[in-house]
Every structure is written in C-alpha cells, then in structure tokens.
Amino acid sequence: MRAVQITETGGPEVLTVVDVEPPRPGPGEVLVAVEAAGVNFIDTYRRGGVYPLQLPAILGSEGAGRVLSTGEGVAGFADGQLVAWKEAPGSYAEQVVVPARELVAVPEGVDARQAAAVMLQGLTAHYLATSTYAAGRGTAALVHAAAGGVGLLLTQMLVLRGARVLATCSPAKADLARGAGAERVVDYADVPAAAREFTDGRGVDVVYDSVGKDTFDASLDALRTRGLMVLYGGSSGQVPPFDVQTLNAKGGLFLTRPSLVQYATDPAELAARTEEVFGWISAGRLDVRIGHTYALAEARRAHEDLEGRRTTGKLLLLP
Ligand code: NDP
C-alpha cells in the first residue's frame, strides 16, 4: 500500500510517499481502508520533532474509512462499515490499523470526508465550547484563527449555544468567520481594544487562543476580571515561560492549557461528544468546510500550505 513516511524529522520536504506492506490488525484492533485522512497542525509538530516519534514513521492520526477486517476480540464492527477515528498513528496511508476503542461508527447523513474532518478538530471545538468553558446565552468569547479548521467549527458551536463571538483571522478570510456566525471580525493587532468595545468596556468572558506566542499577551488583556484564558495551541510558536503573578495583576484571571486527550479518553465521553457533533452535521446545523483536498503524494504541499497560513477550514488527504 502507499503511505506518507518520514525517516527523519524536519520541514515538509521530509514527507515521502513509499510502498509498504499493509499492517495487520492485532487483538482489539481493526484494519480500515482509509477514504480520507485529516491533516492537522499536530502532524506538523510530529514531523518537525516537537512531539517525538519512533522513526521511520507513517504520519497522520485522524481519518475515516471502511472496515476491512477485525482482530481478535473485536465486537460491534462489520466489514464494509464506515468508521472514523481521531488517533491512529499512520493514517496518512491507504490502510491503517485502529484500536477498536478509538473507532466510532459514522451514522447516515454524515459522509466519510465530513467524519474525517471533525474527529480531531470538531471534538476539540466541542470540548472547548461545552466543557473547558460551558459557553451559553450571552457569553462573550474571543476566537483566534476563526477561519481555520478548529476556528470555523468552534465559532459555529459557540453561536449554537447562544454565545456572541468576536473573531480574529487574516483579513482575506474574514467573510468565512462571519459566515460561521462571528458577530465581529478584527485583525489580530486590534485585540484587546476590540474586546473592550465588544463588551461595553468589560472584556470578554473567555478567549480561545490557538495562535500562542504572537497573541498570548493581547489575549490576556482582552479578558474581563476573572475571565478564562484557554491556550490550546501554538500555531505561531509556543508561549515562553510565564510569571503567574500576571494573572493577579490582570484581574484574577484563570488560565488553562487543555488537550483533546483529557476530554475524550473515556469511551463514553468520546461517544457522547461524537454523537452530538455528527447529529449537528446530519441536521444541517454544523457546516463542515473542507477547504482543501490533496492526494497522498501532495502531503508535502498540504503541510506547506497549513504552516504558510494559506488554508481555511479542514485539509484532507485522499488516498
Ligand atoms: P488552522 O486551520 O487553525 O491553521 C492555523 C491558522 O492559524 C492559520 O491558518 C492562521 O490563520 C493562524 N495563524 C496565526 N498566526 C500564525 C502563524 N504565525 N503561523 C501559522 N498560522 C498562524 O489549524 P488547525 O485547526 O489544525 O489547528 C489550530 C491550532 O489548534 C493549532 O495550534 C493546533 O495545534 C491546535 N489544536 C489543539 C488541540 C488541543 O486539543 N489542544 C486540538 C486540535 C488543534 P489566519 O491566516 O487567519 O491568521
């Protein structure tokens, strides 16, 4: 089968398409024919060595496809069934082995591309909007990179829950953020003044910041007294070590740095979040924007585009 492999860490040029033996499912595992593999920022961190991998490694973690065969002890999945997953190393490939506990069945009304697009970014948006901060009617939220993969989904979910969204993104992408329901879209440089204006001087209740190094300080200044700063990524680089007294000086703020793994490890929690997200898609309440699709051989370009800020919405590799 064809797969996208790295033998060393580095820039997008280390991504190489190779022919390898297909994997075999062990006990508790399922072999899947990949129909769409999600491209995520975390794949670039792994490629670059920020999160170490044992090499050589086939990249990718998220996807959707059809069950080919099941290993010993697997129940509840049938050959040919459409399934999706957020975490199966080696998903940039024609076939991948997925632990059965990671697999979810894709219901009628959701196709493979939509499913692959929301397993990582959609579930992330879901836990951010519902659990990290239980946004509701009247919540004022600032969403950075609102036209991105997580950003477009998070903006829609916040609005679904009755929140008001102030968004940032590149000016050329502003219409997309507005289309997702953002009430106001501003340039990164205009935070925090825009946050005060948006809330009659008070500051927003919560900031969702995935940009990190370049936006962190302004994000803190956008918050109300006792507001919540959710730092969930570092698309511009990681935030340097931080003096916690700053939280006191800026209004008794709260700061959290969550990951999806803490909000979807329990199979019941994973199932509940997935069910709600798939339900919104099939009911037409959540628009999944597939911004760009690439062949496996174009994985390098997909990473260059993502890191180069040339993308909107979800990126998929189609084996
Ligand atoms: P995006 O589609 O959001 O792409 C990143 C976007 O960030 C760019 O398109 C760009 O939008 C914006 N950006 C601002 N500054 C920079 C910069 N210096 N370099 C690159 N991009 C920049 O990616 P994803 O949706 O895949 O991921 C978004 C972030 O969320 C990532 O940091 C990722 O690690 C994190 N994440 C965290 C998870 C968690 O559970 N903690 C889970 C999933 C993702 P614009 O041009 O509009 O500024």
Automatic annotation (TrEMBL):
Pfam families: ADH_N, ADH_zinc_N_2
Transmembrane segment boundaries: none
Enoyl reductase (ER) domain residues: 10-317
SUPFAM superfamilies according to UniProt: GroES-like, NAD(P)-binding Rossmann-fold domains
InterPro entries named among the record's database cross-references: ADH-like_N, ER, GroES-like_sf, NAD(P)-bd_dom_sf, QOR-like
Key words of the record: NADP, Oxidoreductase
Matches recorded under PANTHER family: QUINONE OXIDOREDUCTASE PIG3-RELATED, QUINONE OXIDOREDUCTASE-RELATED
Entry protein name: Quinone oxidoreductase
UniProt source species: Kineococcus gynurae
